[in-house]
């Protein structure tokens, strides 16, 4: 049943009370007005008959009045001209819009071409283009892997592109987020990966000391800053890169590549010691190649994320693809969460989230929503937002889970023994192993019981060539481009012709003439005119436009 609106009727007592208050207020206002009294405007006494040069003074006054009347008439004409111009422009715009509608297909084709150019920065094709730039420009490529699922973070297409590119290009594996897996599991993975590529154990600093981060740390004083700002493995990695630079006898460029949320930008920030690159929980924060100078001999190239191929399984797409939480539907989210839950131990998930037994993914999400207080109107659990939050937790640095390395060492077909030896050539592997051991010993790790056991789905395929990417433009992007087109049309329409400029110059001349006439006022002006007339002349406005300062700034609204 619909709720009825509240009645506006008042009780008689309240109504009479209000009326009484109003009468009292009016009485008070009338009394104050009587006390003040009404000031009548003083009459102009005119020029006395005994005044010298009376006729001349009267002529001057008449001339001034005539000039002011002429000026008013000119201003009226100018206003009319402006209105006519605006009407013509509006008519042109309407005609252009009608033509566009009639043309239809031709105009849509042109607009699509424009949108493709403007949407370049946020498109997946531009990500591939920028990634390829990084691979081509770099002497050493660092493939960043999440220590919780290193095999799932490896991209065979990327590795093949680096190996087959020719020259002395090297590929290093950086095992990031090592503090989120048990110590034994980490050692197993280091032993497995070092047989294929030189592998560096790394734990990046999550909060860097920066102007933007100072306020954050002050507000949230409870955060464990000792844990978050520490970085492990940076000395080992820098030493490796510097040794390689000495062998090459030149300044080297190091490209940092990988799937989203593996910690590419945070590794660069950790090596630099300052927040040089933007970092965030959202996937795909880095849009283009960024160059960061570590020292005179090494340049780091930050790259956008590798785009996961749509042919991958649901788990790889859930953890490794760039998901836009605003655009992606609830079906995609549920599929991703379902894939994650299917590859985990159910009991461990229940223990971690402290949730009772559940039969399917929707039930799990509804229980989690109820526990976290994420409810819609009427107490309905907000399943979509919980799914988004859960995916962010699994790719971020919140949840501790680990996967086991394969039982037998089977390198991919593009990795022959010669190529493995070539990749390990210029690096001191003994020193690397010692440094890795020291970083492993220095860190604290979660216990195997508290870490969730996770079944990896193997290597994730990625699209590196632009032709492989299927682009789908979203609605909001189309809206943005249409707005930009309208702005361009307005700019074209409002360009002034030569005739318009001449009119403006004439108007300016008229205004200057009148101002000069007003300045040349005789010294007997005070004698001629009363105070009231004098103030009227001075306060006469020559069609002033409203100041820009008075305009309301919408950017000052508080969210």
UniProtKB/TrEMBL annotation:
The lineage of its organism: Eukaryota, Metazoa, Chordata, Craniata, Vertebrata. SUPFAM superfamilies: P-loop containing nucleoside triphosphate hydrolases. Residues 1-42 have a biased composition (Basic residues). InterPro entries: G_CP_dom, Gnl3_N_dom, GTP-bd, GTP-bd_ortho_bundle_sf, P-loop_NTPase, TRAFAC_YlqF/YawG_RiboMat. GO terms for molecular function: GTP binding. This is Guanine nucleotide-binding protein-like 3. Pfam families: GN3L_Grn1, MMR_HSR1. Residues 483-510 have a biased composition (Acidic residues). One of its GO terms (cellular component) is nucleolus. Residues 128-309 form the CP-type G domain. Residues 1-122, 475-517 are annotated as: Disordered. PANTHER family: GTP-BINDING PROTEIN-RELATED, GUANINE NUCLEOTIDE-BINDING PROTEIN-LIKE 3.
């Amino acid at each position: 049943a619909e709720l009825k609106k509240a009645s506006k009727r008042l009780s008689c007592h309240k109504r009479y009370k209000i009326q009484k208050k109003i009468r009292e207020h009016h009485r008070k206002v009338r009394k104050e007005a009587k006390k003040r009294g009404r000031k009548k405007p003083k009459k102009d006494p005119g020029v006395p008959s005994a005044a010298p040069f009376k006729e001349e003074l009267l002529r001057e006054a008449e001339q001034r009045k005539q000039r002011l009347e002429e000026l008013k008439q000119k201003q009226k004409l100018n206003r009319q001209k402006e209105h006519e111009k605006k009407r013509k422009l509006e008519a042109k715009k309407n005609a252009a819009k009608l033509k566009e509608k009639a043309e239809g297909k031709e105009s849509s084709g042109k607009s699509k071409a424009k949108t493709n150019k403007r949407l370049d920065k946020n498109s997946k094709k531009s990500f591939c283009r920028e990634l390829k730039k990084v691979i081509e420009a770099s002497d050493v490529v660092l493939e960043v892997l999440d220590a919780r699922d290193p095999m799932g973070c490896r991209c065979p297409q990327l590795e093949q592109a680096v190996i087959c590119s020719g020259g002395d290009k090297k590929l290093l594996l950086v095992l990031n987020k090592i503090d989120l897996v048990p110590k034994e599991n980490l050692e197993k993975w280091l032993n497995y990966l070092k047989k294929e590529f030189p592998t560096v154990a790394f734990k990046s600093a999550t909060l860097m000391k920066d102007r933007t981060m100072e306020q954050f740390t002050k507000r949230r004083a409870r955060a464990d800053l000792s844990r978050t700002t520490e970085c492990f493995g940076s000395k080992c990695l820098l030493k490796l890169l510097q040794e390689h630079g000495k062998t090459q006898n030149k300044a080297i460029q190091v490209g940092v590549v990988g799937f989203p949320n593996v910690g590419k930008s945070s590794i660069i920030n950790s090596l630099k010691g300052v927040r040089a690159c933007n970092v965030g929980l959202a996937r795909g924060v880095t849009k283009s190649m960024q160059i960061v100078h570590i020292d005179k001999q090494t340049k780091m190239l930050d790259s956008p994320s590798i785009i996961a191929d749509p042919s991958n399984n649901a788990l790889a797409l859930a953890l490794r693809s760039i998901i836009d939480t605003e655009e992606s539907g609830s079906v995609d989210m549920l599929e991703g969460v379902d894939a994650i839950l299917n590859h985990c131990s159910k009991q461990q998930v229940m223990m971690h989230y402290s949730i009772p037994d559940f039969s399917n993914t929707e039930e799990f999400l509804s229980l989690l929503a109820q526990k976290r207080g994420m409810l819609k109107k009427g107490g309905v659990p907000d399943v979509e937002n919980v799914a988004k939050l859960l995916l962010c937790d699994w790719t971020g640095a919140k949840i501790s889970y680990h996967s086991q390395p394969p039982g037998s060492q089977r390198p991919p077909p593009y990795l022959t023994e010669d190529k493995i030896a070539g990749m390990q050539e210029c690096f001191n592997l003994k020193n690397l192993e010692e440094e890795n051991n020291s970083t492993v010993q220095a860190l604290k790790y979660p216990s195997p019981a508290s870490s969730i056991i996770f079944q990896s789905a193997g290597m994730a395929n990625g699209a590196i060539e632009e032709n492989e990417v299927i682009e789908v433009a979203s609605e909001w992007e189309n809206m943005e481009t249409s707005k930009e087109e309208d702005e361009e049309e307005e700019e074209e329409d409002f360009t002034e012709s030569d005739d318009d400029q001449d009119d403006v110059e004439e108007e300016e001349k008229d205004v200057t003439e009148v101002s000069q006439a007003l300045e040349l006022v005789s010294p007997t002006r005070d004698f001629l005119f009363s105070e009231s007339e004098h103030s009227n002349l001075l306060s006469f406005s020559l069609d002033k436009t409203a100041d820009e300062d008075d305009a309301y700034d919408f950017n000052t609204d508080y969210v």
